[in-house]
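Q: Hi! First time doing this. I have a protein sequence and I read that you can turn it into a structure. Is that right? Here it is:
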Amino acid sequence: MKGPRLRVAQLAGFLLWLTSGVGMWLGWPDGTTSLLLAAGLFVFHGPTVIAAWRERESKPPKPAEEVLKWYPKWWA
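A: Yes, that's right. Below is the predicted 3D structure, encoded as structure tokens:
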């Protein structure tokens, strides 16, 4: 998700997060504010996390030689 849809999702997530803060301040039930907070964080970070996961899963695995060059010689 890129461009205006990402910005709208982030704005909606921020507004949900802000609403949960107002709910805590006004003394709303803990379950309600917790759900609003979780929903806000998911809406705000969800699209970027899912896109990064899909990109990582679509790449082929690196060869063993390339990975092992970062480890000390005694490790291999």
